[in-house]
Design brief:
two-stranded antiparallel ribbon, 14% helix
Length: 205
């Protein structure tokens, strides 16, 4: 086909201009979002021969309870919310009301049904009325010199259960396609990389 006059780059046919491609794929996510899975892969593995598996776990107690109902500034038996909430307290604990900043001393070990604590009010602070839901935080102890040892408090571990899970991902490509030369490199290797990364992300989620 004849061309009249000055020829510019735009006057070539599409097939004549191969254009310029960077011979690779720029990955928009160079760092995998499956960081937890990556860290866990470095830990020691332990096999399970059953799809359900359990383990014991234990954390430190919060040493905090919530007041149940309104309490006056002279009440010495403080009702608490929850199931057996008083079991974290013992005689000699110093307790802070997080709202009023009043400090109290627990004067006796709690007893069944473990729903209240007996305290001495206004220790180094002014006794104040308590509201339902006020937080009571153990901040230390108030033992006298030469006093008898306090009651011990220990905590049992809890059992947590989990189940094994099957993850399946597939690379599906014909032999012809795997041999076809692409500007972006080996198609099979790229698909395998992509599927493995998605596999790890699904495990992470």
């Amino acid at each position: 086909m004849p061309v009249l006059g000055l020829r510019g780059s735009g006057s070539f046919s599409t097939d004549e201009r191969p254009k310029n491609y960077r011979q690779a794929i720029l990955l928009l996510f160079p760092n995998t979002p499956a960081s937890l899975t990556a860290l866990l892969s470095m830990l020691k593995e332990e096999a399970t021969d059953d799809p359900e598996f359990k383990q014991f776990q234990k954390g430190l107690p919060s040493q905090r309870a919530l007041v149940s109902g309104a309490q006056t500034n002279v009440d010495t038996v403080i009702e608490l919310q929850g199931t057996e909430p008083a079991k974290i307290f013992k005689r000699g604990h110093a307790v802070l009301n997080e709202r009023t900043l009043e400090v109290m001393w627990v004067t006796a070990d709690p007893t069944s049904p473990w729903s209240s604590i007996t305290v001495a009010r206004g220790k180094g602070s002014t006794a104040a009325a308590m509201n339902d839901g006020d937080g009571l935080l153990i901040i230390g102890s108030s033992h006298q010199e030469g006093a008898a040892a306090p009651t011990a408090i220990t905590y049992d571990p809890t059992v947590v259960t989990n189940y094994t899970q099957i993850f399946r991902n597939v690379v599906d490509i014909t032999a012809t396609a795997s041999k076809t030369r692409l500007r972006t490199g080996d198609a099979l290797k790229e698909y395998e990389r992509e599927v493995l990364e998605l596999h790890a992300i699904e495990m992470e989620k």
